[in-house]
Amino acid sequence: MLSVSLVIPAWNESERIEDCLTCCVRQTMPAKEIIVVDNKSTDDTRDIVERFMQAHPDSNIILMEQDAEQGLVPTRNYGLDRATGDVLGRFDADCMLRPDWVETVSRVFTEDPTAMGCTGPVAYYDMPLRAVGLNGDNQVRSRIYRADGDHPLLFGSNMALRATAWRQIRTQVCRDKADIMHEDIDISLHLIGDGLRTVYCPNMVTAMSARRIDSSPKSFNAYMRRFRNTFAAHPDHRRFFKPEVAFRTMYPLLHTFYPQYQWYLRKRSVDPAKSIWLKEQRRLGLTDESA
Length: 291
Hints:
Layout: E1 4-10, H1 17-25, E2 33-38, H2 45-55, E3 61-65, H3 72-82, E4 87-90, E5 96-97, H4 101-111, E6 115-119, E7 122-124, H5 130-143, E8 146-147, E9 151-152, E10 159-162, H6 163-169, H7 183-193, E11 197-200, E12 206-208, H8 217-232, H9 243-267, H10 272-275, H11 278-283
Parallel strand pairs: 1-2, 1-4, 2-3, 6-11, 7-12
Antiparallel strand pairs: 4-10, 5-12, 6-10, 8-9
InterPro entries: Glyco_trans_2-like (IPR001173), Glycosyltransf_2 (IPR050834), Nucleotide-diphossugar_trans (IPR029044)
GO molecular function: transferase activity
Pfam families: Glycos_transf_2
């Protein structure tokens, strides 16, 4: 089985970084390394990571600092460039990996030597009906989140690259200093443009927050325009479906409902990120019963 490095860009992630790292170490197959790249955090993100490292000395957690430039793209690149695994997993610091994520990713790239990038669906841990939401996300990403015919687009909250593929495209990916594109789609289009195959795996699952839906209409629409901006920057690539149309349609209802559900979770003292995979972790013997 191929080794997997986990790369987590982080900027002011004190609220969720410990939960994220907990999911990273509670895996059926251990990651070769877990790299947190801090990008000028002004909160106690680094302190939390350092304490977690001390509490888990056998998990090979590495804290790096990327202070030369503010931004997700340079921070992501810094971590990917320094990872040593055969496969490079990348996700956000508020994402929670399902307990078999590392094993699933390793198996995909081991069994399919032509796979150069892989992605999968996400569950939304701070929304109700998580199974329904996961199934819906799977339908969207497996069917319409594609380019140039039938090439899956990678999703930054749940993606992995073969290390050799990253080294091939690393100098080609856009820096996007104006911060107007989707960096994960940019990576996808550079892979596809170089003839490197992307694949979709429905069993490669992470969980993430739906907090984007809580942003203002202006901010949300600006985020949706990133789809158009990214493809405009890559005129040689085409897409038939536009997922942002579906997202804009759902936004008004979900924007109204989301804060009400967060109030309900707070009233019940429920931490949805911490509990999303807890039952499965316990079933697999990856945690103490007291956790």
